[in-house]
Structure prediction request, 1445 residues.
Amino acid sequence: MRPLKDAQLGAFTFFASALPHDVCGSNGLPLTPNSIKILGRFQILKTVTHPRLCQYVDISRGKHERLIVVAEHFESSLSDFQKQGIKASSEKVLQVAYELLEGLDFMNKHGMVHRALSAHNVLMDCKGNVKLAKFGLYHMTDHGADVDFPIGYPSYLAPEVIAQGSFHPSDSSHDEAPLPSGPKTDVWSLGVLLFELCAGRRLLQNIEISERLKFILTLGCMDDIVTVLAEEHGCLDAIKELPENVLELLRKCLTFLPSKRPTPAELLGDPIFNGVSCLYTPFKKPVSLFSSSLRCAHLELPEDISDLCKDDDEDYLSERAINEVYHLWCLAGGDLEKELTNKGIIQSKPPICTLANFVLEDGESFGQRRDRSFLLDDTTVTLSLCQLGNRLRDVAGEAYYPLLEDEQSSLPQSNSSNELSTTVKLPLIIRERDTEYQLIRIILFDRLLKAYPYKKNLVWKEARVDIPPLVRGLVWAALLGIEGDIQAKYESTDKDTPIPTDRQIEVDIPRCHQYDELLSSPQGHIKFRRVLKAWVVSHPDLVYWQGLDSLCAPFLYLNFNNEALAYACMSAFIPKYLYNFFLKDNSHVIQEYLTVFSQMIAFHDPELSNHLNEIGFIPDLYAIPWFLTMFTHVFPLHKIFHLWDTLLLGNSSFPFCIGVAILQQLRDRLLANGFNECILLFSDLPEIDIERCVRESINLFCWTPKSATYRQHAQPPKAAGDNGFGKAASYYTSDYQDMPKTDLSRDPLALCDLKAEVSPRISAEDLIDLCELSLSGPGKRTRAGKPKIVAVDIRNLEDFNRGHISGSINIPFSTAFGPNSELVQCPATGVLQSYRGRVIVIISHAITNAIMFAAHLVKVNFPRVCFLDGGINKLKPTGLLTVPSPMI
Amino acid sequence: MPSCATMKKNKGKASSTNEKEFVFEFRAGQHNCVLKVPLQFPVQEIINDLHGRLMLLHKIPCYIETDLKSSLSSFVEKETILDYDREAELALQRLTAGDVDINQLTNAWTRSYVETTLEHARPEEPSWDEDFADVYHELIHSPASDTLLNLEHNYFVSISELISERDMELKKLQERQASEMDKVMHELGNTLSDHDVNAVASQHFDAQQVLENKWASEQKQVTGIQKHEYQQWVISLHQDLQKSNSSQITEEIKVQPSQLLEVADPGARMFEEQPQLEESFTIHLGAQLKTMHNLRLVRADVLDFCKHRQHSSAGAKLRRLQTALSLYSSSLCGLVLLVDNRVNSYSGIKREFATVAKECTDFHFPFLEAQLDEVQQVLLYARAQRSSKQKEQPEIPRNGGDDKNKNVERNPSNILPGEFYISRHSNLSEVHAVFHLCVDDNVRSGNITARDPAIMGLRNILKVCCTHDVTTVTVPLLLVHDMSEEMTIPWCLKRAELVFKCVKGFMMEMASWDGGISRTVQFLVPKSISEEMFYQLSNMLPQIFRVSSTLTLTSKH
Prediction:
């Protein structure tokens, strides 16, 4: 979005019309409230950016179908001319006309019509350039069908608009809404507007509305409408004095028959403007982040670089994008309803005074007095930025332009940096509401994203701290490594031709995260359908499984105006975390996944695992929707965002840890209950503290040896060298599958064998890495954050003495457990007890012994038990086995 | 090689769509190719997608891509403008041809503007009620609130004294009459005949009526005076405060002690014999996003929520203050009262309610009788509206419509099961709005379903709660106010389950009406049910609603 510059933020409000009581949609579901329809349609307006149009910023729903729209705003408008009674010079008229037409033409190219053109909706910025306001009202209200009030102002209505009739909800004789108006209706309004400018007075003032409209309609019989209007308003002289090109312009605009009236585009190219058009350069849309063309292609640096840093007034905030400023305004305590109430625009009556007297069985109420506060007052109120300014007073100028080169200091140095470094330690919820912190973070990410993919590493690094909600959509795309011309790819995917999956998609969408305003709007449904179909069509080897809709929801929500990006993110996410989950026959993938999951439960929480196995509450019963939708089916969107902020940083085994963390949060209730209660509990998952869940799953993840979550059906290693800008592969982010495969890696295992094992296996590599054994000696730097480990050799003493890995303890299998599978008290088991809490790696000769030994340990609630894949034999070729010096 | 594809679209209104053919010619090597695509207007699709699909479908070489795109979009643009022009001129022609009446047309426009926009709306006539509401709301949220409450209470006390005086006199009269009657009965058969006894009885009745009427009119007069005085006083206090611009209130109004009342009848009006049982729950509704609500199961008399109590009793003044504070706020309290099909206050619970409502002067809203009169008027208007609408569209079938229509035709001033009227009160202890829901004897039977009018009425009540910010509503759980013999334990359990489940459904629906505002729903059970029954019901509630887990404060070991 454009920088705020000298603009203000303005807000206006209106009511969507109420739905008829008790009517169902054709699918049997309740009708969507009109305010939600408007909210959905509004979104696209945020992307309509043009220098002649007031940028739309946000829309919010209030109580009782109230909508509040926030947009760029300016205090002065064309009606100032009228108030002062000044006739505008003909140059000014031509300039205003040309700029207005530029705006209208741009809107028309986006399929929009203004319809509400009037003097007070044509704003002027400080340089006197035209800015069209409320240009989206006609579009967002579905041509006025979703609101009670007519769109447009009586004096400015084009004759055909009047003739097509007004649609009034209480009027039952009109069943159908009038037909939508075309771009030419705005040209008529423009004509009236320009006439007023030339005449220096308002047209058809002080006449009753119906007389006004009749007058406009009778103009059809006149030959020269401009003269008639001038005579009627006693300004014939003023009009006669106008230069010929202005008169010509007026005549062209005020052409009665639409077919003879030019469109804005035609007028713009008219020779009338020959003297004006050369002053304007056509508007070019800035290149988006993901496109085939170079973003810097048209960058021209001035000769003298210092021209760029001319400090005018040092108001750095106004250099930020409008939506950023608005976001910060909200964080700094801005309240739209309060602002509008203070200005008297929102006037509400106490509800007790407006109660109906009598309500019929079908819900129709009677005796409710007409509430004046529901009438339209579309005055725009300027939102004061004072409070925000005060809040950000202490932010130094440098903070607005952080240097990215220095990778050491992530936070810019300012006198408040101390404060910021303490903020980082606060809970995420608080950080997200901290104005100053968010400002710094947004600026930082904004710059990093502008340098994407070059600064990909830094994006990863900063995302580990947190992701500001305002830029989450793009940051996620960066984390998922989206690159290239996604728009072209998306457009070339056929999203319209019917496919067999359509029916299922149609059923699922109205049931997917519908509490959310965006996703429940008709626009949301259309976009949902298109993105899902695009995915299904472009992945012929995979199929649509229920749950894909939930998976799509967060991406669509974050990139509502960019379906292509939503599609690209989803397409990148699925192979990374849900490889082959959407195969037509996905049972082997899911079964393996769930088995590894239950091994993870046993690994991290043996007590819970024992209990759940005892009552037969296996992951198959509850965890499939968790993993198939990556938890999007079970959590509301705001929780998914926080969960995925971390998930996207981890590798494909991170979901296991989230699963275990959820179970642990419900641990007490699970342990106390039997099968039926557990099923009931999970049928509607209780509230989960998501921040705690994230924290604990990170902790669990750190304790899990990488190879423990090995799956043979995981995504095969990617071809080397595709990491263009090579993100530093850290221990946590790289997948086990991505590592080069060696002899010491884990071997695939048949599913039935895997299922028989309570504890996970780990690879010899992992053991070597974690025990810090290596041939090059112990000089390797110790990495912090690695799990503490103890190796337990369960071969008999003889074998042990012949060679073992250093640091391992020997507990011969035959001696460790008593008849009731309790741990026998002996010095060796005592040592084992003292290592309780560490990762215990069991090393054996025969793998069955290791499996049984591990199972026994889990039975007696030993956490973090795993065993070496392939047993001691795997280690023999490495030469790492040592023989203790004989005791003397 | 001409290629042609049909893409039928069923979108849009059939009447206003038409098909046009897009023709595009291009050269591929030696061949001249023609692409013909029939398109439905108005075009619903995004042009870029359409273009992408055409490229894919007809395997169009990529060097044509930009040409095709620009020619396609200019074709669509041009044709759309033509369509607009055609429709617009059709409308203008209809007008000149006289198919549409110009006066009707412009009047419809005028009405639209006048009824929906502030700019063109008729100026508002000043409303005394709303001005008073503003003044009161301001005062009650100022230090003057205590004074206001004390004043209200003093008025209440004087009404109470009046009532107890009335009761005393009535009691005396009844005693005198009883002794007279005794005498008469004694003489029955001797000097006096049955006829004489009847005469005396009717004479007694008349005397009682006269006395009651006298007191009623007296009470009405007093309350009228009180209301007038009170409103004047509030307005002048407000003016004084504005003038002096200080929050100091010079004249304090002390609570007028009233020994009379406390001695007069401590049991009958003020206390309940059985202790009120109450249990509260916090629930979460919704699949992914959960909204929190409070539920309460209460065993009490329905009028306990209305009865005014002495300030001396614990918490009564606080409760009164709470109700007064929220009167003009957006968190109102409502109560569902089950009534029969007549809009009056002559019998049963309606009469009892009216008595309670009169115990204290309503300083804000019209008296109950006046409100009921208004409801009657509105009811007749609604019936007239309905019947005229039904005549217009007779084909719409309505479930059980015949039966209902007959009832309505018989007596249009009666209301039907499932319908309700609303009265507003400022003088009840914990309630601002009362929903008088009409039920018939059907609710006493054991087999009502979720489609029962009474249940639908509950749904509509909850809907009104949403639209008018009633955040606390009290619902009779068993849909009866008094227990009778046929209401066995299984009957109670079945009924409670039905109402719980339906209310749960409605509350989930409410989330889409109001965006999930936290509410309190109180389920009321009659006083006469046993304690065991109460606990059985309170066990049932958490099984039906999802009760949120208790917060564990113990740290992890």
Summary: The radius of gyration of chain B is 34 Å.
